[in-house]
Write a structure and sequence with these properties.
- The protein is of the alpha/beta class and about 300 residues long.
- It has helices spanning about 40-50, 90-100, 110-120, 135-145, 165-175, 190-195, 215-220, 240, 270-280, 295-300, and strands at about 5-10, 15-25, 30-35, 55-60, 65, 75-80, 150-155, 180-185, 200-205, 205-215, 225-230, 245-250, 255-260, 285-290.
- The protein has 2 domains: about 5-215, P-loop containing nucleotide triphosphate hydrolases (Rossmann fold); about 225-290, Alpha-Beta Plaits, CATH 3.30.70.
- The protein has 10 helices and 14 strands.
- β12 (about 245-250) and β13 form a beta hairpin.
- The radius of gyration is 24 Å and the shape is elongated.
């Protein structure tokens, strides 16, 4: 496992920022890390990168314990903070060479050129950072996070404030990077997560409330009950319909269409099909409903 977070807790005075959060992220995964403001996302990311210590629990990167005193572990981690702190009076290559020096890279100039090429900064490399657009500044931030070739990349709101063209460019860049690195992205943009991530972790008020693939979460396999859209050729016996094993609630859409919600004890579809046969009903529609990630997020964090 690249990232192992075990029972992490953190408190600021009387406020509990994180409450026994645990999860693992495997090598090569691209995971979206979601939560409302104040949920503890940035705090946890700082703990994972070794910038901040936890009150309880452990973090391991590639099976090595992450601690604020363990500076060597940072050679395995790339981190782009939310506010992307750059030295704007420096030129792009000058800044990247300085960062490469922090990591004591022997092939400093060669690695800078490689990062300039990878992040699409070739046309801007001789400019001062303050002269760059928001999109190119984000590219510089990604270049500094990648310059030491870390196996784990932590990105905190990497696409905030970008226009649609810049957004797609950064998305594609992150997709390419994730092919051989473990990437964890914190963002408020649901479309961002659906576009590039394969898995989602959601925290609320310092606690983990959901963890699963995009498809699992949207289908309700982890966080909410299964919902089936059913349409018959005529109105069924509602009393018998409600007695189908596993049905928790039925919402009427029309005289022949219904939303059947499960109690999560079983897949409703075989039971509904059996009911239709017994009642001599023709099933015109039987479809498992999926909700948007945005609606799911709201349900979990309200």
């Amino acid at each position: 496992m690249s990232i192992q977070v075990s029972q992490i807790s953190k408190q600021y005075g009387s406020q509990k920022a994180l409450d026994q959060v645990s999860f693992e992220i495997g090598t090569g995964e691209l995971v979206g890390f979601l939560g409302p403001n104040g949920a503890g996302k940035s705090t946890l990311m700082k703990i994972i990168t070794g910038y901040l210590s936890s009150d309880h629990g452990t973090v391991r990167i590639n099976n090595e314990l992450v601690e604020t005193e363990n500076i060597a572990i940072r050679s395995q981690i790339g981190y782009l903070p939310e506010n992307n702190p750059l030295y704007t009076d420096l030129y792009v290559r000058e800044y990247l060479e300085m960062v490469a020096g922090f990591y004591r890279l022997e092939n400093k100039k060669e690695q800078v050129l490689k990062m300039v090429e990878l992040t699409g900064l070739k046309t801007e490399q001789h400019k001062k950072i303050k002269a760059l657009s928001k999109g190119f500044r984000q590219r510089v931030g990604l270049a500094q996070a990648l310059i030491h070739d870390p196996s784990v990349l932590i990105l905190d709101e990497p696409t905030t404030g970008l226009d649609p063209n810049q957004l797609e460019e950064i998305r594609q860049l992150i997709r390419n990077i994730s092919l051989n690195k473990t990437v964890m992205i914190s963002t408020h943009i649901m479309q961002e997560v659906e576009a590039i991530c394969t898995r989602v972790i959601i925290i609320n008020k310092g606690k983990l409330v959901a963890d699963g693939s995009i498809n699992q979460l949207k289908a309700g396999q982890i966080t909410r009950n299964q919902t089936i859209l059913v349409e018959f050729d005529r109105t069924p016996d509602m009393e018998a319909f409600r007695k189908i094993p596993g049905i928790k609630n039925i919402e009427r859409i029309s005289n022949t269409s219904y939303l059947a919600e499960s109690d999560n004890s079983m897949d409703l579809r075989p039971a509904i099909f059996k009911f239709a046969v017994q009642e001599k009903l023709i099933l015109l529609t039987m479809k498992e409903q999926q909700q948007s990630l945005e609606n799911l997020f709201q349900d979990l964090t309200k």
